[in-house]
Fold:
Amino acid sequence: MPDIALDNLSKSFGTFVAVDGATLTAADGELLTLLGPSGCGKTTTLRMIAGLEEPSGGSIRIGERMVYDRAHGIDVPAEVRGLGMVFQSYAIWPHMTVAENIAYPLRMRRVGRAQRRELVDKVLDLVGLSGLGDKPSTLLSGGQQQRVALARALVFEPALLLLDEPLSNLDAKLREQMRFELRIMQQRIGLTAVYVTHDQEEALTLSDRLVVMNHGEIEQIGTPTEVYEHPATRFVAQFIGKGNMIDVASGVDWQPSGARLTLHSGGEAREVQIPASSIRTEPARKTKAAANADLSPAASLFVRPEKIEIGSGERAGARSAHAVHLAGRVLGRAYVGNRAEYLVAINDATSLKVESSTDVTVGPGAEVMLSIAPEDMVLYRPSPQ
Amino acid sequence: MSVQVGIATTLGEGEVAGRATRIGVLRTPWIARLGIPPVVFYLLLAVLLIVLVFYPFAVLLTSSFFTGQPGRLGNFTLANYAVWLGSWDLLPIMLNSVIFATARLAIALFFALLFAWAVARTDVPFAGLMGWMIPIPFFIPDLLTGFGWLMLGNPQNGVINQLATQFFGIQGPVINLYGWGGLIFHSALGSISFIFLMLVGFFKQMDASYEEAAITLGASKLKVMMTITFPMLAPAILSISLLVFIHGLESFENPLLFGNPGGVYVFANEIYRMLSYRHPPEYGAATALSVILIVVTFALLVVQWRKLGGRRFTVVTGKGYRPTRLRLPGVLRWSIFALFVIYFLLAVVIPIAQIVFNSFFEIFGLYGWQYVTLKNWSNVINNGRALNGFKNTIIYATIAASAVVVIGGLVGYIRVRTRHWLGYALELMAWAPWTLPGVVMGLALLWAWALPPQPFNLYGTALVIIIGFIVKGLPLGAATMQSAIHQISPELEESSRVHGGSWLRTVRYILAPLMRRGALAAFVIVFAIAARDLTIPLLLYRDDTETLTVTLLHYYETGDMGTLAATSLIQLALVMMLLALDRLTREKEG
Structure:
């Protein structure tokens, strides 16, 4: 199985920059996910790999083969790149049976009838649709269409599998089931795959590594754990999982050993010391769109709801000896099965989302004390423009 | 698991040189190896459309400033325009045209709206049958039903007038279809089906929840119709009205049949009069009048474009859900149905029955058992003229319709699937002939193809008539093809490309099969337009390239009503054939 490398790949439509200098690699047998909100350039990137969209610059290498290189005028047509692709709409041809759909890539490769039938039967078996080959494709359910699309992309043992939001048209239950099946199948075959989704949960559970994109730029590349635990930018922090972003516009004292800042709660000012290891400096934005994104230019403090401990009244939890304690009032409480979510106001301008186990029960209006360990906080520092 | 084994074994072999994948071989398609950029193909298509559409128009415009006649330009002059702009002669023609087009539109729009609304949005009885039957007259040439009505209602010996004399002793005509009355009556009757066809899709597509919301808020059914349904569809109705109005300004057959004997002259029959009833033909004046007409229609078309924001109109082919229907009081339901029955009797049954009846009598108006004869039919079969016309019509219409399907398909594909600006330009060019009225188009083609030296001089050939049909069918044909392509998700094609299908193979295995029905619909529409057309062959035919419509007009002008009736029925057979084909395209819709 080949690896894939994109080098400084770009695409603009007129003056709009859809993808701005994407550089990334996927190792042999790796499942790499492109994740981001709609319009972030993830689908455009995938379509450029497939050869369905002509890049404005950069290069694409699949295994040993350069399929696109602007500088050297290489542009291998989509139909000879030898890739398998699952489309968002599945793109099952309605005028063909299931078997005809799946056999299509083999027909295009001039594979003989007998071998075609053999390979189709094998792959039908693999995706769990044995015996459905003669069924008209219009009579398939959503989940079955999804499997046929996958079978069609796998039948000729492609160099690379591309998946464009393949699960977004399924209902929630089926989506979860297919997600695991897809992952198991990809690992079993050892196929290199590039997967596009806007669903962060899907991305976290499926991927070996993920690429978070926004406004055509790559924000962070890393394993799911890295991206969740150590978000490189404010965008990543807010896009993946839940989080509190507190603007600390004024009064940050930047020191070599870290930063000192003040938080206001319960009418008092609390000093917070952030170690240098928890400070991230945002990269300079290249594109206009990214620069204009509605991110505050000031520094912000980030903390995940489950990292905040909640105690009733004056009794603060004691997770860490040097924890920061903030007094607040509960605005609302939502029960979500095994835990509870709170919205707690610590001053007139700031409320924090807090998640805790259900054995703490405080209702709306209750005075509470929040505790946060300094190492659970991340301070984002805007790039010096 | 078995695939896993397969991969495990092939993995060991390593990559064989030149093989893109592990199974089978992919080759770069020959057309890609040539390295011709797609824009070259777009430009070739653009050149073809320029030759087909703009070249004749340009020649027409040029020749309006010259003294010559087709084949010879002559000298520069402004006299052709002086005829019209330097006298009061233009005024009555303009006025007549506007009055005619307005009256025709107003009456036809009223009934078309009523029928479209009833069929698509209410529980009117036999809605399905109505929806199928109302468009039928669109397929029947105006010429045919016109002949039928003239036999019935001409003031001298019209059948209705004869009956009135015979049974009630009334002397003098009780009905006179010559002049304004017949002109407006028959052309309005004929336009209802076209407007209905254009409108009914909008009514069907409209989300019923808008109307239901109004009902839950206490609006009566009439209020809902007046405050929600019609206003929401107003842009569509307005823009279709403008199109129909433009067609009213251009229409030829009705002014020829009903206007001429009553002395009512509008643009089209005036142009024809200058060419055919004057000796020698006044080419200069006719050409100048044609240019004036184009200027007027083009101005109106610009208005129409603004209204629709460039989105011509929707040609509805297939799908669409069934919205909940308004329940009407019984009296209203059956009144609308009764109106439909009357409409269908007047537009189809009565005139066609008259023609059928007349085809079995030797002398028009002498209807007695002793006069029944099959002579008309043996005439038609023996003298060969009608059969030759029939044959020509079928051949020309088939070639033209096939050409439009291909050209329209390419234009639609480029327009829908690429972001290239030439796509818009091509679409515009395919649409442009809509501004060219039939008679003007015939005149323009006559000028354009009689002018160049051999072998490009197509004057008097069948090819020039076929070109005329292509140009005339292009707007609707291309729009139909474009909407058919629009309904195919681009991912269906992309999926083929990624999985190894070249562009040509994608067209062959994916696009063509998926577009079959849309292409058939476009074929039928263009065939119908060509088969019913009189204006283009009328100015371009020679004896051996005469089409059936020209044959019909010939029999009408020589007063041979028996042979005319029999020949009309051959044309009708053609119409039936088309209706059957059209039925086929809609078959599986549900």
Remarks:
- The interface with chain A takes residues 1-4, 6-7, 10-11, 15, 20-29, 32, 419, 489, 491-492, 494-502, 505, 509-510, 513-514 of chain B (CB under 8 Å).
- Residues 1-20, 310-321 of chain B have pLDDT under 50 and may be disordered.
- The two ends of chain B are 42 Å apart (CA to CA).
